[in-house]
Amino acid sequence: MKKLIIILTILVISGGYSGFSQDSGELVVPFSDPAKPKKVIVDLRRGSIEVVGSDRQDVKIYYEPTDSKMNENGTSSDGLKRIASASLNLEISEKDNTVEIESDSWNKGVNVKIEVPYRVDLHVESYNDGDLFVSNIKGEVVADSQNGRITAENISGSLIADTYNGAIRVTFDEIKPDTPMAFSTYNGDIDLTLPANFRGSMKMKTARGDILSGFDFTLEKSEPETKKDTKSGTYKIYMDEWVRGKINGGGPEFMLKNYNGNIYLRKK
Predict the structure, then answer these.
(1) Domain residue spans of the chain
(2) What is the pLDDT of residues 168-208, one digit of tens each?
(3) Fold classified for 3-267
(4) Which of 119, 118, 89 lies closest to 104 in space, CA to CA?
(5) Which of 4-18, 61-75, 226-240 has the lowest mean pLDDT?
(6) What's the rounded Cα separation, in Å, for the pair 35 and 40?
(7) What contacts 137, CB < 8 A, 6 or more positions away?
(8) Distance of alpha carbon 102 from alpha carbon 117, whole angstroms
C-alpha cells in the first residue's frame, strides 16, 4: 500500500533573461510491484501528452512549460522580455501500481513526454493547447481531449478516443478480442488502420463527410423507428442516421462518430 507523491511547484526567475531551462526536467517513478498489472493516468488542464511504450519497468517523465507566447529567447511578439513566469504545478503519485501525473493549472501549461512499460493500461486527458500521442502500448488505452488531435500508433489492445476539435488517427497492430471500442470527434477526420483479419460490427455516423473503407463491408439495412407522443397522440417517424455493417463476419461493436470530417477504415 505504498504511496509515493512528488509535487513540483516552480516559480521561474530568468537570470539575465537567458531562458527558462529551470522550468524543465525529468523524473523516474517506480511501480510498487513491476510484476503485477500496471496503470498510468495523465491529466493536464493545458499542454500536450506523449506516451511511448518501452522495455523499461518504471515510468520516466520529461516535463517542460508550453510557453506558447514566447520564443526561445523569452521574447514576446512586441519585444518585451519575461523576467518571471507563473508557477508550474505538477503532481505525480504512485499507489498500488498506478502512477498518476496531474497538472491543474490553466495559466501555466506543461508538456509531458512519458516512457512506460509496453504492457500498461493508460488513461490520458488534456483540455487545452495540446495534442495526445500514444505509441507502442499493449493494454487498454483511453484518450480524452477537448482541443487537440489524438494520434495512436502500434496499439495492441483496445482504445477509446474522444475529442472535440481535432482528428483521430489510430494504427492497430493487434485488437483485443471481444472488446467494444469508440472514437468520436466534432471537427476532424477519424482514420483507423486495422489488421487484415479484424472482425467487427461497425456503427458509424458523419454529418458532413464521407465514410471510406478498404475492407469488404456488409451493410445492414436500418429500419425507420416509429414513436408515439402519449400527450398529443401523434406518431413520429425517425430515420436512423447511423451506418451499420459487419467486417469479416462481425464482432464487437466499433462506434465512430463525427460531424465535420471523413471516416476512414484502412486495412493494414
Answers:
(1) 3-267
(2) 999 999 999 999 999 999 999 999 999 999 999 999 999 99
(3) Pectate Lyase C-like (2.160.20)
(4) 89
(5) 4-18
(6) 15
(7) 51, 53, 116, 118, 120, 122, 152, 154, 155, 156, 157
(8) 19
